[in-house]
Amino acid sequence: MDATRNLLSLHPPGAAPALGCCALLLALALGGCGWLRPEGVRFVTPDEVAAWATSPDAPLILDARSPEEYAEGHVPGAINVPFRQIGGRAGELEAGRTRGIVTYCEHGPRSLLAQRALAQAGFTHLAQLEGDMAGWRESGLSIER
Asked: Is 41 helix (H, G, I), strand (E, B) or coil?
């Protein structure tokens, strides 16, 4: 329950995270540099995500990369829904309405787009994996193939 409480505490029910257009465009222009922290986006560390792995109420982990990138290696337990498909596949993520969703891509821009699409679909408890997949690899945590 602690994992969900930590993620849910950022956004009160009914309040979608604010992703300003300027912040999103800047993130895309900078290629998702790890130091960029757009306003309104909650970040969780790789260690936090790894600690939640055994919790039954842990947030969903959403890999917003392509299926090919996902097959090359992903965060253990992550669900692959490429960011362009989120609108049509939101039904697969219903558990994330109560448990929360942590998104990631390789460096950040697609993860931010995924969060925007999730917010538009009514998801409110969202966070981004700090450092995205590149940061996960750098942390030395296990990778699932």
From this structure: coil
Q: How far apart are CA 29 and CA 65, in angstroms?
A: 18
Instruction: Please provide the DSSP assignment of 8-21 as one string.
Output: HTTS-TT-PPP--H
Contact assessment for residue 79 and residue 92, using Cβ atoms and an 8 Å cutoff: yes
Q: What is the pLDDT along the chain (145 residues), one digit of tens a residue?
A: 555 455 555 443 444 444 343 344 334 433 443 434 567 789 999 999 999 988 989 999 999 999 999 999 999 999 999 999 999 999 999 999 999 999 999 999 999 999 999 999 999 999 999 999 999 999 999 999 9
Q: Looking at the annotation, which residues are catalytic? A: 105
Please check whether residue 27 is in contact with residue 67, taking contact to mean a CB–CB distance below 8 angstroms: no
Is position 102 within any domain? Answer: yes
Find the radius of gyration of the CA atoms of the chain: 14
Q: Considering the domain boundaries, does residue 145 fall inside one?
A: no
Q: Total structural domains in the chain? A: 1
| Amino acid sitting at position 137 | R
N-terminal to C-terminal alpha carbon distance within the chain: 28
pTM above threshold 0.70: yes
